[in-house]
Amino acid sequence: MLVVVPLVAAPIAALLNRPRLSWAVAVAATLWALYAALELLSQTMAAGAIHYELGGWPAPYGIEYVVDPVNAWVVVIVALIGALVAPYARVSVEREITEDRIPLFYAAFILCLTGLLGIAVTGDVFNVFVFLEISSLSAYALIALGSDRRALTASFQYLIMGSVGATFIVIGIGLMYVMTGTLNMADLADRLPEVSGTRTIPVAFTFLTVGITLKLALFPLHLWLPNAYTYAPSAVTAFIASTATKVGVYLLLRFFFTIFGVTFSFDVMQLDRILMPLALIAIVTMSLVAIYQENVKRLLAYSSVAQIGYMVLGISFASVLGLTAGILHLFNHALMKGALFMSMGCVMYRVGSVRLERMNGLGRAMPWTMAAFVVGGLSLIGVPLTV
């Protein structure tokens, strides 16, 4: 029901001709998703992993949904951001998007949420690809709805790079299926060691590495992200920045730690020799690039690429402490970037621009908004008690 209710709500929101009714459907769907996510988290923390076999077909033959303590938290953070952005979106969307497109906006928003939730809970790798495409296609549409003409170009750039990433992922999945005859994640983890000595599995691993790192915007495959975050509607930027790349990091964890295993990923394929240098370069260079930006949304976009570097750096150590740090920062970054981009959405509504020269004196004109922005900035710095 976590996935089904939003999936049904999306076409309902699109068919309603009144923007306020579409907004109400979106709010209801996101609140339901948050409630379901919290229930799943409560159950997994109390009783362990939950397994659900779609259509009654037993795994590995049927599609299995699995919720464990790790992806339960990912589901909660995605649903929480969705539930916060949906009410916030009403005023922002009415200003930035033409009235006839607003129902389509909410439909795409709900579909994007559905896809991200589906990626987090599915135990089937092809199902991962399906939900990835649902979330990606709706994200392309959401970005293209931006009022700036450059939003269409940003969306097209994201479409091209996202399609390349998705193609690499589905090729990797296909190669694994050819060698193992299964798409179930747990079954793949059991069967892959038997064929890991072949040339096909390293090739599949390479395709998946490129595809997933492109989706999570790891340097240097981040080129789609700055324009997408800058020119998308404010509500879209707040939602995607807080969720899409975080689900990409989750996919990285799920494939390389659960399916391929630590030994194959880091001892045989030496993934750390790729991830660690790229993460360090991202942290330094993207932070420097961010300093010189005049548009605050673009500044935060480049900052996001640097922060993804921090998450991947923790993962690249392949240790308990490194994983803990990377996952903790994933949740922290989702909350603080959501707060920062929503603050900029309020500034955009009030001032009509998010350029630095237009923000002089906003602390007096919008004290609560700028206070939230300051808290988010302090959290970005790492000041204690701001997480």
Structure description:
- This protein is an all-alpha fold.
- The protein has one domain (4-381).
- Helix content is 77%, strand content 2%.
- It contains 16 helices and 2 strands.
- The protein has helices at 4-15, 19-47, 69-96, 102-121, 125-144, 150-180, 185-195, 200-215, 225-231, 234-259, 262-268, 272-291, 296-316, 320-351, 362-365, 367-381; strands at residues 50-53, 64-67.
- A two-stranded antiparallel ribbon has the order 1-2.
- Helix 3 (69-96) runs antiparallel to helix 10 (234-259) and helix 12 (272-291) packs antiparallel against helix 13.
- The longest helix has 32 residues, at 320-351.
- The chain is globular, with a radius of gyration of 20 Å.
- The two termini are 31 Å apart.
- The relative contact order is 0.09.
Overall radius of gyration = 20 Å
Shape: globular
**Helix percent band:** over 70%
| Uncertain spans | none
Gap between N and C termini, in Å?
Answer: 31 Å
* Tally of alpha and pi helices: 16
Instruction: Return the average pLDDT rounded to an integer.
Output: 85
Topology, number of strands:
2
Our count of domains comes out at 1
Order of helices and strands: HHEEHHHHHHHHHHHHHH
Strands of the largest sheet, in order across it?
1-2
Portion in strands: under 5%
What composes the largest sheet? 2 strands, antiparallel
Coarse structural class = mainly alpha
